[in-house]
Amino acid sequence: MTLTMKNISKSYQDGDQVVEVLKNVSLEVAQGEFVAIVGPSGAGKSTFLSIAGALLSPTVGEITIGGTELSNLSNKALTEIRLEKVGFIFQGANLIPYLNVRDQLLLIAELAGHRGSEAKQKADTLLSELGLTARQHNYPESLSGGEKQRVAIARSLMNNPDVILADEPTASLDASRGHKVVQMIAEEVKRNNKAAIMVTHDERVLDLVDRVVRIEDGHLRG
Predict the structure, then answer these.
(1) Which residues neighbour 142 within 8 Å (Cβ) at sequence distance 6 or greater?
(2) Amino acid 124: pLDDT
(3) What is the structure's pLDDT at 36?
(4) Dihedral through CA 220, CA 38, CA 197, CA 151, nearest 10?
(5) 8 A C-beta contact, residue 173 and residue 105
(6) Which of 93, 96, 127, 171 could be stapled to 148 by a disulfide with Cβ–Cβ 3.0 to 4.6 Å?
(7) How wide is the angle at C-alpha 94 spanned by C-alphas 35 and 218, nearest 5°?
């Protein structure tokens, strides 16, 4: 399994009370599998995704990404995991306003210590696959919402991650563009044997995933 979450719980101290956000949840996502997490607001979806991507540590439980168990890793090692093994697609594209499309991708490679012609070739290949070659020198302010999300997808794939995590990737898009964006993620999952989790409220894109898991009151069902 590329991503394994085993007996994960997450709680916070809120004054005198302990708030349990996740309650002993487990999930395995295989290579080439695209899983959607659905559920009401406040159910723990964003917390779950943050833990899956090593942005947040669980109170209890184990996470394994690409064969690496995370619980005893240093902060520096966790940063390397996030850069090299996890590709994030956030609700808003979160592009850097002063970088053009191509440089958005090259920055990710540079942060991971990958420079030179190989990184440039990877960026150009991704931009071509996602229909962005003609926009590679444009800045975010001149891109449509759909184009920004495609750049975000390309950026998330820049370091060939084992795991893709998407947080409400269709939130700012109309139905047609949203469906196309999720279809692109699904195609990447199959083409390059990635494991992917998408948190979504958008039931119109659930036909594109392999499995739907519901989160409610801190528990996973599905």
Answers:
(1) none
(2) 94
(3) 97
(4) -160
(5) no
(6) 93
(7) 40
For 111, list phi and psi in degrees, rounded to 5. Answer: -60, -30
What percentage of the chain has pLDDT greater than the value 70?
99
| Alpha-carbon gap, residue 31 to 188, rounded angstroms | 11
Query: What CA–CA distance (Å, rounded) separates 152 from 24?
Result: 32
* Tokens at 214, concatenated: 């519901």
C-alpha distances (whole Å) from 119 to each of 13, 19, 103, 124 are: 44, 44, 11, 9
- Quick: pLDDT tens for 6-31: 999 999 888 888 889 999 999 999 99
pLDDT tens per residue, range 78-130: 988 998 899 999 877 889 999 999 999 999 888 887 778 889 999 999 999 88
End-to-end Cα distance, the chain: 18
DSSP secondary structure, 38-52, as one string: E--TTSSHHHHHHHH
What is the chain's length? 222
Residues 218/22, Cβ–Cβ less than 8 Å: yes
DSSP structural state of residue 207: G
Closest CA to 197 of 21, 65, 56: 65
Whether the pLDDT of residue 1 is over 70: the answer is: no
Average pLDDT, the chain: 90
What's the pLDDT score for residue 91?
A: 78
Query: Where does 3-221 sit in CATH, by number?
Result: 3.40.50.300
Return the SS3 of 37.
strand
Burial class (CB in 10 A: 0-12, 13-18, 19+), 29: buried
